[in-house]
Amino acid sequence: MDASLSNDDGLVDAAFLEKVLRGRLSEAEARTFAAAGAEIIAFTMLALTQRVAGQQAAGPNTPSAAVPPYAKPTASPRKGQRRRGGQKGHPGVTRPPLPEPDRRRELQLDCCPECQGKLQRTGDTRTRRSEDIPDGLKPVITEDILHRDYCPTCKKRVEPKPPDVLPNCTLGNRTLVLSAVLHYLQGLTISQIVDTFNFHLRMKVTPGGLMQMWHRLATLLFAWYVQIQAECLDSARLNADETGWRVQGKTHWLWCFAGPDATFYMIDRSRGSPALQKFFTKAFEGVLITDFWSPYDAIVCADKQKCWPHLLRDMANVDEKHAGDKVWQSFARRVISVYREAKKLHAAKATTVAVDYDIAAMRLESRLATIAGEAWNHPDAARLAKRLAKYGDQLLTFLWHDDIPSDNNHGERQIRPAVMIRKNSYGNHSDRGMLTQSVLMTIFRTLKLRNQQPLETILEALANYAKTGKIPPLPQKAE
């Protein structure tokens, strides 16, 4: 009997039963099972009968929660699926050692905690450190006495500006920036932030007051927003992606443009070229990495790389419906073969002679062109062959560059936090809120990419603004 039909627990394989029940058993697996022997067939049929009877007893419309966990089928991992937790070969991440303590205390027992007997002192000690939030979190109310002096030259009164609070604000900059970080970076809703400050921190804030302060913060930091856009346009590679967004209940689109150390978000009514023209204010001289969304075709850039996983996922969906079709199998097998060989070639670039590498890369491009040029009588194969004919020269761009990936994973990872924020907050209620959302999400995400502390970095910039009237340039990546 084939090893796939048995396991260490007995004669019946749960994965084999799942394939039978879900109608995914192949002809080859059925023939292998038929030759497995009478005993294995008998036990498998009995187990299958019990499973079918259990499903009928539960009923077709029984909610999943109504079925006890022990009665649910064991989920078999998909082929190629990563296991949970740390991955093999990846460095572990642990909490760094705590710095020097702010206070010290000595703890010593008066008697034995077990028998209450008298202890004999040994002089032996052990040291440990812990970190906690101080007890009694209470807002600090500051009263500034501003000396208003007269300038004979300007012929007017002048006064200093407080370094840690914006004009006409009763909440300090730390509260302002922290609340904005919670909303635009961590994704907390406004009501959750108000509850946190009012109940836990005992500082009274209102939703409208917070929103007005965030608008002012976005206005002050708008120069950073423009700077991030310029840095993205000057980068060697740029990932782009888009997703739906709601503004005043109407459908808009959130665009994400991600460079190696900068992420730019833009919310716009359009999902097409008008929105892209607002971002690409000049020709992009790097490599643009995207999916197959057609508006990206009009972007002028040095080169383009299309996302292989998007193509492979589309093929996987077709494969679930037409796995037995020989024409489709031939198409899928040939395309996947090109992808696998391209990945191997790219991985071995450093150890391959340049001429041999170039010849191998051109052969792979020729194979893709051949697949795209053939007449496929399967509808999905014909549809994807058209895609290969249109974008075939953009699928293997990564072979000609050392730092260009074959996927758009970086763009998808950078847009995912914004998607989580959208699920919590349901979009924006005004155009001004839409702009503030774009500006602050962009700045916070970029600072995080650059290993900068958003809270301290922005507080320092606001202190500089209070002193000079100008916001300093956005800091670069911290080592």
Notable features of this structure?
479 residues; extended; two-stranded antiparallel ribbon; 5-stranded mixed beta sheet; alpha/beta; disordered N terminus
Description of the molecule:
Mean pLDDT is about 85; it is low at about 1-10. Helix 9 runs antiparallel to helix 10 and helix 11 (about 355-375) packs antiparallel against helix 12. The chain is built from 15 helices and seven strands. It has a domain at about 310-400. It has helices at about 15-20, 25-35, 40-60, 175-185, 190-200, 205-220, 220-235, 275-280, 310-320, 325-345, 355-375, 380-395, 410-425, 430-450, 455-470, and strands at about 150, 155-160, 235-245, 250-260, 265-270, 285-290, 300-305. Helix content is about 45%, strand content about 10%. The strands form two sheets. It has a five-stranded mixed sheet with strand order 5-4-3-6-7. A two-stranded antiparallel sheet has the order 1-2.
Total beta-strand segments: 7
Strand content: 5-15%
Rounded mean pLDDT is 87
Q: Helix/strand-derived class?
A: alpha/beta
* Termini gap: 58 Å
Q: How much helix is in the residues?
A: 40-55%
Q: What is the strand arrangement across the widest sheet? A: 5-4-3-6-7
One letter per element, helices H and strands E, the order comes to: HHHEEHHHHEEEHEEHHHHHHH
Largest sheet: 5 strands, mixed
| Contiguous helical run count | 15
Shape: extended
